[in-house]
Design brief:
Elements lengths: L1 H29 L5 H20 L1
Helix pairs in contact: 1-2
Length: 56
């Protein structure tokens, strides 16, 4: 039970971190700092994780 709770806390923190990074990359892309290709490369796995996390 304790392990499951800790695991959920870690996943929640990772989801928040992914969201924060995606927001940063959104701003960078909007400001022309990174290209669309770079944006996709840096956000793909984060978005995949968030989709998987939201299904739980």
């Amino acid at each position: 039970m304790k392990y499951q709770s800790k695991s959920n806390d870690i996943e929640k923190q990772l989801a928040e971190l992914c969201t924060n990074f995606i927001n940063i990359f959104d701003k960078m892309k909007t400001n022309g700092i990174i290209t669309e290709e770079e944006y996709i490369r840096h956000t793909k796995y984060k978005k995949d994780f968030l989709k998987k996390y939201s299904v739980k």
